[in-house]
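idk why but the lab printer keeps eating my pages so im just putting this in chat instead. protein + heme C:
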Amino acid sequence: MSKIKLGFTVIFTLILLSMFAAFASAEETPFVPTPSNPAPGINVGTIDNNGNEAVHRTHGNFQNNTNSCGNCHSTHNGDSATLLKFEETESDLCLTCHDGTLGFYNVEKASGAGVFNSTHDSASMHDVGTVEIAAAPGALNPTEEELQCSSCHNPHGSVNDRLLKTTVNGKTYSTKAIDLELIEDPAYAEFNASTGPTGLKIYQSKGPVFVNQDLPDVPQRVYSNFCSTCHEDYLKSSGSQRVDGHYSHTTNSYKSGRNCASCHYAHGTDITLLKDTAGKTVADYVKSGWTKEKAEEYMKDVSAGGSAIKKYTNMAVCWACHQSTHKLDTPPVVGGNYSGKPSR
Ligand code: HEC
Ligand code: HEC
Ligand code: HEC
Ligand code: HEC
Ligand code: HEC
Ligand code: HEC
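predcted complex ->
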């Protein structure tokens, strides 16, 4: 009798162990998205309203037999008045999927939008979930609403790329859509090919599209209008004064890229993303033989105000455009090289 009991215990332990091993290995193998299971825990239909093969979306393009609402909303057990499911703040909801869980669109890793990650040196970011929109430098009509992912994004879909809202901080800033240069992500070539012509595609962003400069309301200007819904007093043309009397560099121009995206990321920055005026990063210098320590010391943002979500370290971005800058007290000399740009 006791022998049998022992046998059961051993078998039970073995089952438990093998289950544990299965869980452990499941955690190690990266998730491979398929058309009907594009992300962990997200199982979607593959037949659209017209009977064609396609893939349901999490954000917008909802199909008539959708279950997507349940990813974010709970009918009777919501954590907010908008019936959302989250732990502490609304951004936690977005991060349940966008913290790397999906594989793609991981906002804690570098992308065209920058990064949300405060663990590296020279980090600065839009502190979602902790600050009021009123804290935005240049805010002229401060609102007490908290800054969240959904302050900038519409999780239900948008005419703009990357679900960017058309009305931000109560202001409809343009009648034209924000058009970003999106290319299919080569890391997801197999997935992108599997979802059919109308299906979900994973894209990388190259920033605002640069189109016909003679159009009055082209995407780069629209992008600056977008940022200035909260930073109202930062939208300036050359020579015009801010409300407090200060002058600003041109930020509202579509020519030569003088818009917010030329100099800033949208999410955040840190030492791994910052570039010098030659467009090189810490990784580039490490590849060329520097130690990581030396490269990081070089790329460190030493500005008193911090790295201010910049794409370039310190004031290196200025030199990226004003390359002919010469000493103020020295007239240019034929053959003289005042640029002082690094040779590497
Ligand atoms: C990816 C997450 C997500 C999904 C999926 C989602 N929602 Fe929402 N929903 C939100 C968030 C976040 C808000 C709050 C927006 C805000 O405060 O600006 C919201 C707000 C709402 C609101 C109240 C505000 C409004 O826009 O009227 C309704 C109603 C709503 N959702 C319905 C739906 C329905 C129906 C679906 C499915 C077809 C759905 N949602 C799918 C995240 C989501
Ligand atoms: C349940 C998982 C899940 C949650 C929660 C979620 N997302 Fe997503 N998100 C996805 C998936 C999957 C995609 C891929 C495209 C799609 O399905 O629309 C995506 C794509 C995106 C994109 C890129 C869209 C594009 O077409 O380029 C943005 C921006 C985004 N999500 C923002 C948010 C924000 C903001 C929240 C919180 C309000 C949020 N997401 C919550 C799963 C999620
Ligand atoms: C200040 C406005 C703002 C806030 C706040 C914001 N985003 Fe974004 N986000 C953007 C803009 C602008 C882009 C597109 C940038 C580009 O590609 O040039 C973007 C891009 C993205 C993308 C696509 C990233 C990729 O791989 O290209 C995702 C996903 C996303 N945001 C999710 C989030 C989530 C989740 C949060 C909150 C934790 C958030 N965003 C908060 C403005 C914002
Ligand atoms: C919904 C409102 C909102 C929008 C839209 C917005 N911001 Fe901000 N921004 C804030 C707030 C609030 C702060 C200050 C609090 C913080 O640091 O998060 C801030 C801070 C900043 C800072 C200073 C960060 C620092 O560390 O000093 C920069 C730079 C910035 N934003 C650039 C941008 C750019 C570029 C865009 C457009 C992609 C943009 N913002 C769009 C609300 C916004
Ligand atoms: C030509 C590059 C450039 C452009 C274009 C630009 N910025 Fe900046 N921005 C900077 C630099 C550099 C800093 C750091 C401040 C300094 O060192 O003077 C900064 C700082 C900031 C700050 C932090 C507060 C402050 O004044 O120092 C905010 C907020 C900001 N920028 C918002 C914006 C917004 C919004 C736009 C578009 C409307 C924009 N910037 C366009 C280069 C730029
Ligand atoms: C994207 C290219 C670009 C970048 C980056 C850039 N500038 Fe400019 N800057 C210009 C152009 C073009 C003008 C000519 C005036 C205008 O905006 O119409 C200009 C004008 C100026 C002027 C003259 C004032 C004025 O409004 O005409 C100063 C000073 C200046 N820039 C300093 C800087 C500093 C400091 C930085 C770094 C924060 C910087 N620039 C970054 C393109 C750039």
